[in-house]
């Protein structure tokens, strides 16, 4: 170590540290003077309080006592069910009675016929000309549906960008009974040949619309979707289903696995669509039955898969590329169920 090593490490010529550096484990605090442009300002201790501080609430709030009283508890209600209260047996909440706008002449005409929709109000674009407009107006008047004439931008906002062709109707989905009530009310005669389609987190509205259309065409009685993480019935779904989503009941339930258990307790066989299952034409499909279709990317969830009595798949060519789309697989399996069900009918 050279003679100038202490100077290089911050020591002076006499070996003492410069001001502001550590000495004996203590740190010397530097003192800063007041800025010249603020020399005439008073110190913080001498300043008057801010006017807003006089308005602050300084009394005892008694939060604990108030929160224990149900009058002060904030409960979010959806229909008649409280948030967090999962109904037993996969019972759906009253969210099924939601109101939605339905656009397009074909969809409006289907909604005005015998469907689970309660039509409330019909909007028509000013000076609209269409061959079916007179029929829709007459059907609406027969049902005492209010008719209003609106501009095109107002219709666009109501249908939220969907195609409406100058006419839209506001309707509330109001099924005669919830899914669990309907299942438990079936007797043996009404269960014969019955098919229910359950969709586990199908999130593409076009897939939901296509599956709903196939379910209606291939004799399924209803479609069941989860309340969360699933595409709801929207204008896009109605258009993709060619109006079938207005004809067949689409029930929303809280828990798919509990719903399948409820079906099994009431005599239903549960078949799940899965690539690891048996070929559909090698399966003996019994009715009444439930066909479960998993999501587009991951298929059925583990609990839903465990609730199935048997897994089956659509037979594919060895030169095929991957698996079929969810709506294509649902259509093929529904056809096989209808084919076997027809053979068992007297």
Weakly predicted, low-confidence segments? 65-96
CATH topology category name of the largest domain: Alpha/beta knot
Number of helices: 12
- How much beta, percentage-wise? 15-25%
Largest sheet: 6 strands, parallel
Gist of the model:
With 346 residues, the protein is an alpha/beta fold. The protein contains twelve helices and twelve strands. The chain has two domains: 79 residues, 60s Ribosomal Protein L30, Chain: A, CATH 3.30.1330.30; 166 residues, Alpha/beta knot, CATH 3.40.1280.
Structure description:
It is a single chain. With 346 residues, this protein is of the alpha/beta class. It folds into 2 domains: 95-173, 60s Ribosomal Protein L30, Chain: A (2-Layer Sandwich), CATH 3.30.1330; 179-344, 3-Layer(aba) Sandwich (Alpha/beta knot). It has 12 helices and 12 strands. Mean pLDDT is 76; it is low at 65-96.
List keywords for this structure.
346 residues; alpha/beta; Alpha/beta knot; 2 domains; six-stranded parallel β-sheet; four-stranded mixed β-sheet; 12 helices; extended
Question: Could you give the topology of this structure?
Answer:
Layout (H helix, E strand, L loop, with lengths): L4 H4 L54 H6 L8 E2 L2 E2 L16 E5 L1 H8 L4 E9 L7 H10 L3 E5 L1 H8 L7 E7 L5 H6 L3 H4 L3 E5 L5 H13 L4 E5 L8 H6 L9 E4 L2 H10 L3 E11 L9 E5 L8 H5 L3 E4 L12 H19 L2
Parallel strand pairs: 4-5, 7-8, 7-11, 8-9, 10-11, 10-12
Antiparallel strand pairs: 1-2, 3-6, 4-6
């Amino acid at each position: 170590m050279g003679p100038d090593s202490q100077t290089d490490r911050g020591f002076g010529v006499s070996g003492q540290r410069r001001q502001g550096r550590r000495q004996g484990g203590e740190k010397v605090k530097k003192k800063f003077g007041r800025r010249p442009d603020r020399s005439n300002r008073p110190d913080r201790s001498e300043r008057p309080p801010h006017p807003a501080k006089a308005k602050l609430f300084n009394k005892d709030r008694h939060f604990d006592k108030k929160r224990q009283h149900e009058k002060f508890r904030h409960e979010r209600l959806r229909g008649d069910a409280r948030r967090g209260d999962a109904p037993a047996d996969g019972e759906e909440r009253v969210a099924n009675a939601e109101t939605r706008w339905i656009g397009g002449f074909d969809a409006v005409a289907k909604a005005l016929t015998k469907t689970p929709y309660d039509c409330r109000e019909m909007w028509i674009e000013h000076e609209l000309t269409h061959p079916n407009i007179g029929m829709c107006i007459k059907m609406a008047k027969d049902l005492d549906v209010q008719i209003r004439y609106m501009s095109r931008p107002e219709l666009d906002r109501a249908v939220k960008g969907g195609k409406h062709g100058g006419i839209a109707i506001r309707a509330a989905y109001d099924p005669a009974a919830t899914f669990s009530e309907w299942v438990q009310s079936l007797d043996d005669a009404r269960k014969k040949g019955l098919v229910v389609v359950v969709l586990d987190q199908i999130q593409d509205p076009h897939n939901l619309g296509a599956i709903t259309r196939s379910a209606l065409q291939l004799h399924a009685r209803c479609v069941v979707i989860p309340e969360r993480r699933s595409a709801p019935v929207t204008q896009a779904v109605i258009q993709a289903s060619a109006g079938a989503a207005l004809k067949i009941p689409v029930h929303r339930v809280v828990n798919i696995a509990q719903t399948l258990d409820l079906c099994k307790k009431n005599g239903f066989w549960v078949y799940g669509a899965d690539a690891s299952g048996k070929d559909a034409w090698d399966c003996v499909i019994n009715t009444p039955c439930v066909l479960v279709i998993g999501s587009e990317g991951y298929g059925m969830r583990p609990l839903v898969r465990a609730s199935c009595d048997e897994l089956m798949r659509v037979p594919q060519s060895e030169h095929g590329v991957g698996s079929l789309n969810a709506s294509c697989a649902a259509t093929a399996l529904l056809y096989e169920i209808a084919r076997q069900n027809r053979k068992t009918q007297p």
